[in-house]
Design goal:
- The chain is an alpha+beta fold.
- It has two domains: 213 residues, Ribosomal Protein S5, domain 2 (2-Layer Sandwich); 87 residues, Pdz3 Domain (Roll).
- Helix content is 30%, strand content 27%.
- It contains nine helices and 24 strands.
- The strands form eight sheets. It has a six-stranded mixed beta sheet. Strands 11, 12, 13, 14, 15 and 18 form a six-stranded antiparallel beta sheet that branches.
- The longest helix is centred in the middle third of the chain and has 26 residues.
- It starts with 17 loop residues before the first strand and ends in a 13-residue tail after the last helix.
Length: 382
């Protein structure tokens, strides 16, 4: 910051008097030594102040996470229902099934300063992480936004699939090859766009079918039948052993669904996969009579697979803070996040650990009934 002082007119001082920092004396005598020292001290002080301001505003390679807004999946966002259903009867629901969010500063979103990082470190509602733990090196803001948008779309599709499966409503589900990993065991055998039909004559209805068959074969070759351009083609593949010890085909897969009715989720400026479980609960409440929550204020977070498995997410401490500030008294957390939950639960918030959508639904129904919820699964206290 530069501050400019304007010159101000002044009357001619009498001999021996001073004007500003310069003495005006008869005979043209040089300024006194005392005034030289004063000038040097002032310059040094201004220089130190400038260096201090520069130091605290310098960008640092850290990311700051803080509690973000909450959204009721049973309510509206910008005048539109968060969840709307076409082609199936829907039922207005009371209560709250809040999805929680996190504000992220730093990385591709713009740098944080030393002062901002240090202030966040002193704030128990925020978290500070090295940038490389959150974002790949060199990722741009546009790339990050695109990735989060894709993850949000995928989580919404998975939420619909898991909700319908929980309600025993049939739908069509296929798995399609989205790409091959480097050095893939399926290189030259499977192609992008292939739809997996069967493995060793066992129909592929979910990823778990493939994983179970590969584990049972313990590395032996498998026959994978794919639909390629309308033709069924059998392909023999010898799976590779991953660093985790599991056998893999080395393919990236994506689900393709055909649902019996349309579920539209409208939510602006929110990305990532962590709202999947709460979307699924909101869909269940929307397409079934009555109130799943019984009017209670429930919040939560967690990814969801089409099979209803709840997965861990980031920023759960900040999400619990946001949920409690928003009025929630019950919070659903992925079991795999327990390490981050313990010691960070806000006062007045009960946190229930869940591993799948069925457990999450039962926890909400128990709270809705007014029964004692103290026996619900919880993360260890230490």
């Amino acid at each position: 910051m530069t501050i400019t002082q304007g010159e101000q007119p002044a009357s001619e001082p009498a001999p021996g008097q001073t004007q500003g920092r310069r003495a005006i004396l008869g005979g043209g005598r040089p300024p006194r030594t005392k005034d030289k020292r004063s000038s040097a001290m002032l310059v040094s002080g201004l220089l130190a102040l400038g260096l201090g301001i520069t130091a605290v505003t310098l960008p640092v390679p850290y990311v700051v996470e803080s509690p973000g807004p909450i959204f009721n999946t049973l309510g509206d966002d910008h005048g539109k229902p968060v969840i709307s259903v076409t082609g199936h009867e829907s039922f207005p629901a009371k209560g709250n099934l809040d999805l929680t969010t996190v504000y992220v500063d730093g990385g591709p979103n713009g740098p944080v300063s030393v002062f901002e990082a240090f202030s966040a470190w002193l704030d128990r509602t925020k978290a500070v992480y090295p940038e490389e733990l959150i974002y790949p090196k060199g990722v741009t803001k546009e790339q990050s936004q695109q990735e989060n948008a894709v993850a949000m779309t995928t989580s919404q599709e998975n939420a619909v699939a898991s909700a319908l499966k929980e309600l025993n409503i049939p739908f069509e589900q296929k798995m399609q090859v989205a790409g091959l990993s480097d050095g893939s065991a399926s290189s030259g055998k499977l192609q992008e766009g292939d739809t997996l039909v069967a493995i060793n004559d066992r129909p592929i209805t979910a990823l778990g079918v493939v994983q179970a068959e590969l584990a049972a074969g313990n590395g032996a070759p498998v026959t994978v039948a794919v639909d390629r351009g309308g033709s069924r083609i059998p392909v023999a593949i010898t799976p590779a052993k991953a660093a985790t010890g599991r056998f893999i085909l080395g393919v990236m897969l994506q689900y393709k669904f055909t649902f019996p009715f349309e579920v539209k989720i409208s939510l602006d400026k929110v990305g990532g996969p962590s709202a999947g479980m709460m979307f699924a609960l909101g869909i269940i409440d929307t397409v079934t009579p009555g109130d799943l929550t019984g009017g209670k204020h429930v919040a939560g977070t967690g990814t969801i697979t089409p099979d209803g498995v709840v997965g861990p997410i980031g920023g759960i401490s900040q999400k619990m803070q946001g949920a409690r500030s928003g009025g929630a008294t019950l919070f659903l957390a992925p079991a795999d996040n327990c390490e981050d939950v313990t010691g960070h639960i806000p006062a007045g918030l009960q946190v229930v650990k869940v591993e799948n959508l069925g457990e999450a639904r039962k926890a909400v129904e128990l709270a809705a009934s007014g029964a004692d919820t103290s026996g619900l699964p919880a993360c260890p206290s230490n």
